[in-house]
From TrEMBL:
Residues 779-891, 946-1165 form the Disease resistance R13L4/SHOC-2-like LRR domain. CDD domains: RX-CC_like (cd14798). InterPro entries: Apaf_helical (IPR042197), Disease_R_plants (IPR044974), LRR_dom_sf (IPR032675), LRR_R13L4/SHOC2-like (IPR055414), NB-ARC (IPR002182), P-loop_NTPase (IPR027417), RX-like_CC (IPR038005), Rx_N (IPR041118). Residues 454-507 form a coiled coil. Belongs to the disease resistance NB-LRR family. Gene3D superfamilies: 1.20.5.4130, Helical domain of apoptotic protease-activating factors (1.10.8.430), P-loop containing nucleotide triphosphate hydrolases (3.40.50.300), Ribonuclease Inhibitor (3.80.10.10). Pfam families: LRR_14, NB-ARC, Rx_N, WHD_DRP. Keywords: Coiled coil, Leucine-rich repeat, Nucleotide-binding, Plant defense, Repeat. GO terms for molecular function: ADP binding. The keyword Coiled coil applies. This is Pib variant protein.
Length: 1220
């Protein structure tokens, strides 16, 4: 707990210090005449931070220290709030500026004196109570963390030098390599004069005849930067193809140019200790890296002296002072030369060129598979040791015992056992892929709602229907919106969707038996007898109740010790067999103690394994972990025991990650940046730093990916947090008074000021209750989930910086009046608030605003006052659509359309006709939208997907992201955009013949642009005018009738993602050959009316490779009858998605030439024979015809799937094939 308080305190202090010592704050202090007090406060805060670092190093479980840290944190908050408030209020315009300024100066001077006294008092308490021990204590040696390894290495070298002079003790590199020892040994090579001569010296030993005879399996790999695990493994496989890899034989691997320990952590996963006396030689210019690769328990001996300045050293196990005994770990070989050429970079060292047989191919595939497993998700890790349970449940699901009732299989066990992961593995098992016609997986949401559960079931079942069936429902059954359906209607819809269908339904996470009692009569009678339901719960009585007499109950147990050890080993070392009694007896001993405390709970094992994976991997480190938490763990052997383990993992996080715990990655990282938890540094923006933190949390298993993104460079769109981790984060937040969640049944006992407030959708209190629970005067952030209420915003929220209203319902234009008064606001999100259609000029009051997110609203124009917001960096606006709006040429049509919209919006409210869907909407809101937004847009014919920005936007020099901007009618705005030279992301729509050249000119000026989205009803060749495209462009999206690709795309050497929506590529072969040469392209999406041809051939240049690193390919192939892949085209393609196929009129060929393919998705549309249906005289005959066509459709889909599977039969990845 103390670690959390310290970390949070340091995080807050960093923010306060950053502002207090900024040039702006110092200038304000100078103007106010309070510079002395300001300097004193800033210096005291810096000293407090140093003391807190001392306390963090000491890990002192002192409750008084914890209290002091909280006081420091609160003081830091007050300092930052006050300093910023001084600056903001002093610069507010007023007609009484001079007398008002005098009054403000007196008030501020008084407050500053009080603030100084408070800071001084808090600082003195540390001295008064001797809270931090000082530099003489154990915790004072903070330099050990930063330079301990380097110092140890230098001292070792000095000892080796003295030994060489006195006793002439030297060792030889070839002898170290050929040492008789069955264990895998790592020899690190480091040059005191950089990398000069390293390669040559290692090469000399590598080519030694005795070494060649002893090591038949050899490989030399230069580690490329940035490091790519897949490329590394592929290089190994290419060189080891003539041998039996790294498992059956003694191997020698040289890793040249290793630069970071993170690279080594990934590389070492590929090399098991095969007990054959294998060797790994690592070359690095970093002494710390070389030392860590070989191990910390070592001593040095001089290897040889090449000149006065260059000497070679060997570091090895302390038990072998003369280098004659078995060497467990050989540490650093310090190498340097004066004039030896170091440009040798050998590849493909295997001399035997014999053809690779089937067994050898299997070895190569196994190596690649091993790396994929090491990079797998947490859910895959949690299935270790669960093979028996998975097989049993699959057998139960598959068993057709002619039962007269639907069988319910209940899986129960405590939280953290991996119940959801287990049933997910069953649900996705290939053994069940053809057993059922319908598949549904639903997680029960809280609070429980039968209507929402049935709606989720119906929605998933409907989304699984064919397009033909959807069309039929639209025309015959008048397809209804699920959102407006009530329970009875949803039940009827489920009956229709499930009728005569064998189904597998998973219902995850029941809390009460009453929940099943509500679901059972609505669901079971609708299912075929061969259907199966799997439910999960934490309680045995619920499992028995759900399964009943005819069902089966499975009690998921904790992992056995062997499986738990494998899981821990996999998580820490990425090798399930690394921890064994013979090779690592001391480590195994400590591991068993850790596993005893984890109680066999997979979640606890994985989380604490993630913690240990980032710590030194030695028995002493693990022993300290056991000793520190032993007393607390023994007190509660049940859930509390596991909770303590998880708390230890939480406390082990760096302080900048402690503040972070289905969550949108986009929303999360933007909030972190806005809250100040990430700051711009080393040329990276605050958002990019926050993204790095997100990845770190994922790698530590503190968050889990919940939605993978195939079409994003970030790869993860959203994450989730396990129940126990969430409980711990909430508990710690409440202890520190960091976050308060206002929800049904929440505690009313709040001690101290609240800084962050979240209002849950299930809280239904009124204004008096809200004001009675929450003191909003110190709130820094407010997050709302659910329905808007006007009293949520108050004039008392003087210091509110973050207001997140994303997805809030019932928020209307007139509610924003209170928001414009929040002058400290830095982050405002109205994303998805459908009631917002206009922003008033009062937006200009928010001078501190950095992020404005109005995406998904009906706002079509930004007010002129936005140019006053000099700190604004991110504008997210517009509505998502892949297809641009066409022009309406007739002015009369536009005017009539605008008048109709005005009448539609205004008339019901003028007549007081209010509906339940617009209860918060007023006459003012309706008329404002119709007359000020909709009518002008219709008359001008502007593209409605973006927002219009005022002239003068060029004044916002800090702008980082600007999208989507509507430039339909203006060249001046494009000229302004061209002057925002710091822009990284830009989205523009409304490009036409009149502004095309200006657009191209503007883009040519944005040299730092990384992402560009451009939309037009017709580009008309205007894109060719871009003379100098942004060299760092990584993402490019072009929406419109593009007939020819611009030539300048070939200059985009860093382009990773390319999306073309609605193009009509006439020269398709030339276009694909053109794109195939882009060196960095990983994602290619071509949708809409893509190709004006019948055959599409992805060719590879003679003797070369096309689309060398492409991972994802999505194509719209309407009208195309053949898609062919040549050998050498797309060797890294993992996912292929093809849409627009009609009646199976397409032939795929060459799929076998895609060695990395993991998934193939084909969307097929089968049009109905409406003439035949209409010819039928009655509904019964019509339904019979439709059923016949459905059967034929099912057969054709199966045929296409079978043909694709036949081409992929030899692929070792076992790709998933889906034909929808």
């Amino acid at each position: 707990m103390e670690a959390t308080a310290l970390s949070v305190g340091k995080s807050v202090l960093n923010g306060a210090l950053g502002y207090a010592k900024s040039a702006f704050a110092e200038e304000v202090a100078l103007q106010l005449g309070i510079q002395k007090d300001h300097t004193f406060v800033a210096d005291e805060l810096e000293m407090m931070r140093s003391f807190m670092m001392e306390a963090h190093e000491e890990r002192d479980n002192n409750k008084v220290v914890k209290t002091w840290v909280k006081q420091v944190r609160d003081t830091a908050y007050d300092v930052e709030d006050s300093l910023q408030d001084f600056a903001v209020r002093l610069k507010r315009p007023s007609c009484w500026r001079f007398p008002r300024t005098l009054l403000e100066r007196r008030r501020i001077a008084k407050q500053m004196k009080e603030l100084r006294a408070k800071v001084e008092d808090v600082s003195q308490r540390n001295v008064r109570y001797h809270l931090i021990k000082g530099s003489s204590s154990k915790g004072a040696t903070t330099s050990a963390d930063q330079s301990g390894l380097t110092a140890a290495a230098i001292f070792g070298i000095d000892d080796a030098r003295r030994a060489a002079k006195q006793d002439n003790q030297r060792v030889d590199l070839v002898q170290l390599i050929n040492k008789e020892d069955e264990d895998l040994q790592v020899i690190s090579v480091w040059g005191t004069s950089g990398d000069m001569g390293l390669t040559t010296i290692i090469r000399e030993a590598y080519d030694n005849q005795d070494v060649q005879i002893r090591f038949r399996s050899r490989a030399w790999v230069r580690v490329m930067h940035p490091f790519s695990p897949k490329d590394f493994v592929q290089s190994l496989v290419n060189q080891l193809h003539a041998t039996q890899g790294v498992e059956a034989l003694r191997f020698l691997i040289v890793l040249n140019n290793l630069s970071t320990i993170e690279e080594w952590d990934q590389i070492k996963k590929c090399f098991p200790n095969n007990k054959k006396g294998s060797r790994i030689i690592v070359s690095s210019t970093q002494v710390e890296v070389a030392s860590l690769c070989a191990g910390q328990e070592s001593q040095a001996s001089e290897l040889k002296q090449l000149s006065v300045e260059q000497t070679l050293y060997a570091f090895y196990d302390k038990g072998s002072p003369n280098g004659e005994d078995s060497v467990k770990r050989v540490s650093i070989l310090d190498v340097a030369t004066t004039s030896i050429d170091d440009q040798i970079a050998p590849h493909g060292e295997i001399t035997d060129d014999q053809y690779m047989d089937a067994d050898e191919k299997k070895v190569a595939r196994k190596s690649l598979s091993r790396t994929r497993t090491c990079l797998g998700a947490l859910e895959e890790l949690q299935l270790i040791g669960r093979n028996r349970e998975i097989s049993e449940i699959i057998d139960l699901v598959s068993n057709n015992d002619n039962s007269q009732q639907v069988q319910v299989i209940s899986v129960w066990g405590m939280g953290g056992l991996g119940k959801t992961t287990l049933v997910g593995g069953v649900y996705q098992s290939p053994k069940l892929s053809d057993k059922f016609e319908k598949y549904v997986f639903v997680t029960i949401m809280r609070p429980f709602s039968l209507e929402e559960l049935l709606r989720s079931l119906a929605r998933q079942l409907h989304e699984g229907s064919s397009k033909k069936q959807e069309l039929l429902e639209n025309r015959i059954n008048n397809k209804k919106s699920f959102a407006s359906m009530e329970v009875d209607k949803l039940t009827e819809e489920l009956k229709r969707l499930l009728e005569k269908k064998s189904s597998l339904i998973v219902l995850d996470d029941f809390f009460e038996t009453s929940e099943w009692d509500l679901i059972k009569p609505r669901l079971l009678p609708l299912l075929e007898k061969t259907s199966r339901i799997i439910i999960t719960t934490r309680e045995e009585n619920i499992a028995n109740h759900c399964s009943g007499k005819h069902g089966v109950v499975c009690n998921l147990q904790v992992l056995q010790q062997d499986d738990a050890l494998c899981l821990l080993s996999e998580k820490v070392f990425d090798d399930a067999t690394y921890l064994d009694e013979q090779n690592n007896p001391e480590l195994v001993k400590e591991a068993k103690q850790i596993l005893k405390k984890c109680g066999g709970l997979p979640l606890a094992i994985v989380v604490i394994g993630g913690f240990l994976a980032n710590r030194p991997k030695n028995a002493e480190e693990w022993r300290q972990l056991n000793e520190n938490i032993n007393a607390e763990l023994e007190m509660n052997p049940k859930l509390g025991m596991i909770r303590t383990v998880l708390e230890k993992s939480y406390d082990g996080l760096p302080y900048h990650l402690k503040s972070y715990m289905n969550i949108s990655r986009r929303r999360l990282v933007r909030r972190w940046a806005a809250e100040g938890y990430s700051a711009e540094t080393h040329g990276k923006s605050a958002i990019e730093i926050a993204d790095d933190y997100f990845v770190q949390l994922k790698n530590r298993s503190m968050i889990l990916p919940s939605q993978q993104s195939f079409y994003s460079r970030k790869t993860i769109d959203s994450c989730k947090v396990h129940d126990l981790i969430r409980d711990i984060a909430i508990s710690k937040s409440r202890e520190e008074n960091l976050v308060f969640t206002l929800e049904e049944g929440c505690s009313m006992n709040i001690h101290g000021p609240i800084r962050h407030l979240a209002i849950s959708s299930n809280w239904n209190g009124d204004k008096s209750e809200f004001e009675g629970i929450v003191d909003v005067s110190r709130i820094r952030s407010l997050s709302l989930f659910g329905e808007w209420k006007p009293f949520f915003i108050s004039d008392k929220m003087r210091f509110l910086r973050v207001l997140d209203l994303e997805g809030t319902s019932d928020l209307q234009y007139h509610h924003l009046d209170q928001i414009w008064k929040l002058i400290h606001l830095k982050y405002l999100s109205l994303r998805g608030c459908l009631g917002i259609d206009l922003l008033s000029d009062s937006l200009g009051n928010l001078r501190q605003l950095q992020t404005l997110d109005i995406r998904g609203t009906y706002v079509k124009a930004l007010p002129k006052t936005i140019i006053k917001l000099q700190k604004l960096q991110y504008i997210h606006a517009g509505r998502k659509s892949d297809y641009p709006q066409g022009e309406i040429d007739s002015l009369m049509e536009r005017c009539l359309g605008g008048a109709f919209d005005c009448a539609t919006c205004c008339l019901p409210h003028l007549l007081n006709i209010d509906g339940p869907s617009c209860k918060a909407l007023t006459r003012r809101d309706a008329c404002t939208f119709a007359c000020c937004v909709q009518f002008p847009l219709n008359v001008t014919g502007a593209d409605k997907r973006g927002v219009m920005v005022p002239r003068g936007i060029r004044k916002l020099k800090d702008m980082h992201t600007l999208r989507e901007v509507n430039v339909w009618r203006g060249k001046n705005v494009l000229q302004d955009i061209g002057r925002l030279t710091g822009l990284r992301k830009l989205g523009v729509n409304g490009i036409n013949k009149k502004n095309g050249r200006v657009f191209c000119s503007a883009i040519s000026k944005l040299s730092r642009l990384e992402s560009l989205s451009a939309s037009s009803a017709g580009f008309c060749g205007c894109l060719d005018e871009i003379s100098s495209p942004p060299k760092n462009l990584q993402s490019l999206k072009l929406y419109g009738n593009l007939e020819k690709l611009p030539v300048w795309i070939m200059e985009l050497q860093h382009l990773v993602k390319l999306k073309l929506a609605g193009p009509k590529l006439l020269e398709h072969d030339a276009a694909m050959e053109f794109l195939g040469k882009l060196p960095s392209l990983e994602i290619l999406v071509v949708s809409g009316s893509s190709f004006q041809c019948e055959e599409l051939d992805f060719k590879s240049p003679q003797g070369g490779i096309a689309f060398g690193i492409l991972r994802v390919l999505t194509l719209s192939v309407s009208g195309i009858k053949s898609v062919k892949f040549d050998e050498g085209a797309m060797p890294k393609l993992e996912r292929l998605q093809v849409t627009g196929v009609t009646n199976n009129e397409i032939v795929f060929s060459g799929l076998g030439f895609l060695p990395s393919i993991n998934e193939v998705q084909v969307g097929v549309y089968f049009p109905l024979d409406w003439d035949r249906i209409r010819a039928a005289r009655d509904h019964e005959t019509q339904y019979k015809i439709i059923e016949e066509e459905k059967q034929e459709e099912w057969r054709k889909r199966g045929e296409l799937k079978k043909k694709i599977q036949e081409q992929l039969a030899q692929n070792t990845n076992e790709p998933i094939v889906t034909v929808d």
